[in-house]
Write a structure and sequence with these properties.
Blueprint: H1 2-10, H2 25-36, E1 47-52, H3 55-64, H4 70-73, E2 76-83, H5 88-102, H6 110-121, H7 125-149, E3 153-157, H8 162-169, E4 176-185, H9 203-206
Antiparallel strand pairs: 1-2, 2-4, 3-4
Helix pairs in contact: 2-7, 3-8, 5-6
Keywords: Flavoprotein, FMN, NAD, NADP, Oxidoreductase
Organism: Flavobacterium plantiphilum
Cofactor: FMN
Length: 210
């Protein structure tokens, strides 16, 4: 745990990446697995994760992300896109997957599936989209923690125009919406931000024990 906390102190929202340094295939695979294993409500994972390596696509994305240099300088760009139309078929697919993975009759999961449908599918479209978008932040948390363990820098970003990214990536046709993005790579030695002291609330300010 001491290493975990040390790595959390090491990480920061990198402002300038070294464009000459690339994440290895092995490390990228580890990060993808960390995202895949992330917790989500009911285990549904109502999102897709798009890894953008193509420099031309990233150049198109940059203006839609307020011109931030990390978009093109980082080794990789990850887009977390939440599902905009979650319906009974998504629940049925998930229940079927549980049945297969755990080798149990799908019929025995019918009540659980109906319960999820009653809590999720019945939500308004706006509430449903907010809920699926929240799930992407859980996946981002796993990415941040895993990357810190590998000494890979990650900058989570909410500074972008979702509608523009959706159009560039063709997400509307897939019933997806850009919830958040993250750039991955290695900090540039000229990025002065890496030397700033981490500013967080004190334990006394942050926690309430009842």
């Amino acid at each position: 745990m001491s290493n975990f906390l040390e790595n959390q102190n090491w990480r920061y929202a990198t402002k300038k990446f070294d464009a000459t340094k690339k994440i290895s295939k092995e490390d990228l695979k580890t990060l993808k697995e960390a995202i895949r294993l992330s917790s989500s409500s009911y285990g549904l994972q109502p999102y897709k994760v798009i890894i953008v390596e193509n420099p031309e696509i990233r150049a198109k994305i940059q203006p839609a992300a307020w011109g931030q240099s990390q978009i093109t300088e980082a080794s990789h760009l990850i887009v977390f896109a939440n599902k905009t139309k979650l319906d009974n078929s998504d629940i049925d697919e998930y229940v079927s997957n549980i049945s297969t993975v755990r080798n149990i009759p799908v019929e025995s999961l019918a009540a659980y599936g109906d319960f999820m449908k009653s809590k999720i599918v019945t939500l308004s479209d706006d509430s449903k989209n907010i809920w699926t978008s929240k799930q992407t932040y859980l996946a981002l948390g796993n990415l941040l923690n895993a990357a810190a363990e590998l000494k890979i820098d990650v900058t989570p970003m909410e500074g972008f125009v979702p509608e523009q990214l959706n159009e560039i990536l063709g997400l509307d046709k897939l019933n997806l919406n850009t919830s958040l993005i993250a750039t991955l790579g290695y900090r540039h030695e000229e990025d002065a931000t890496q030397h700033y002291k981490k500013v967080r609330k004190s334990e006394e300010e942050l926690f309430i024990t009842l």
